[in-house]
Amino acid sequence: MTHIMVPDGVLAPWLWIGAWLLAVLCLAVALWATRNTDRMRLVPLAGTMAAVMALVMTLEIVPIGYEPHLTVLSGILLGPAYGFLATFVFNILRMLVGDGSVTLLGLNTLILGAEAVGGYYLFRSLRRLSGSPAGSGLAAGIATVVALAIATLLFLAVVFVGSLEIAAVADVAGWNELLERAGTEEPGFSVFARLVLILGAIGWLIEATVVGAITAFLRAVRPTLLRAVPA
Amino acid sequence: MIDVLAVDRWSSRGRGWLHRASAGAKIAAAAACIGALVVSRDVAVLGLIYAGLLAALVTSGLPIRPVLALSALPLAMSAVFAVTRLGGTWESAIVIVEKGAITSLVLLLLVGTTPATVLFSVSRRVMPRTLAEMLFLGYRSIFLLLARALAAREAVRLRSPRLSLAAGLKRNAMVGALAVLRASELAADQYAAMRLRGLGSARDASGRARTLSGDGMVLALVGLLLTGAIVLARTQDAERSFVLGGAIFMLAVSSGVGRWRTQS
Fold first, then answer.
1. Whether the Cβ atoms of residue B30 and residue B107 lie closer than 8 Å to each other
2. Cα(A53)–Cα(A91) distance, rounded to whole angstroms?
3. Which of A13, A76, B124, B249 is 20 to 30 A away from residue B191, measured at CA?
4. pTM of whole model > 0.80?
């Protein structure tokens, strides 16, 4: 849901150029943070997680127009720096098969990167409460819901700032019927935001369940994968 | 689902004129096309660029229908977006669809005619090493994951009875986690082997040699196409229709000749 799928040259240049610059800055910081890390373990894992995200995104939950990304799982396994880098690579992989525009690569990296980075820190904080597989799963699930909620707010901010027509964005997600039920053909931003958050919340819960179950399983069979990453 | 395996096969087995050009030339040509669509909001100009890309597809030796079907996946999203966008004029709606179509087709022409190893050797020159290695391993991991996940799903389907929602979710999470674990182990082994063979050092190979004539052809054709687009953008009314019609006629004739030569 937070992956912006608008063709090149539609959004205002100041928005995507600014996002590109900010993304490059974040990538530079992330690369700097990875300089003294276990590259032999984390680089292949980051590549694998980028592939996981690229594949999982194709499994759209059609009734609510929700595309899971598992970005939070990437953040949990890779840490903030490698998680952000993996998100960038995932966006390139999607772009190379014609999905996602070149100019919005920066904007998508920032929003999805926020999910990975936020998810990591939330998981670290919540995991202290319980180290058991079930506790880790629960912590991962809660971290997923909160991180996705924050990223969705970022997405809404971009929609608002980018002056996109709300009806157009709603049409992309296939929410025409819901808008009609809302009793308006030209809804205000608040109506659009409410719909995105309501439908998004269903998707967050589904994604959180999957991330929680995978994390609990990994905690049980390979706890070293969930150890704190310095970067 | 996007058939990544097919794209990989086209890029490594094809022998068309686009396959003979270097990755650098094709990336430059793709960047030029995307730059043109970012600055242009003219239906005819974008239509001409798309027609040029279609001509390239027809003559490239790539399978036309599968490539067009693949490029239509993101196009569907653009089309829905276009219906209600930008004041509701037909021109603005068509512009959005054209932009989505051009981005999608130009990237598919690039990855469909350039082997992944060559693309990633180019990426190592323009990207930090860590990112380039991640990109390469990510691409390879897609195939590993697909194979692992499909095999695991088949095994589970054959051996398990119908389960409740919670049990089914737990089982699917286990399948997903096992696929991730195995794929990351294989990627780690591959990465270690690649580093032993000199990945990231001066001994690192930089891809298959390409012909300069292939590069010249790609760059000349894109230059010609963009020149035509600029001329079209500066003409008005009757002249405009004449220029557009002439350009499309020339593209159709050259596509026909190119296709005939490819097949014969």
1. yes
2. 9
3. A76
4. no
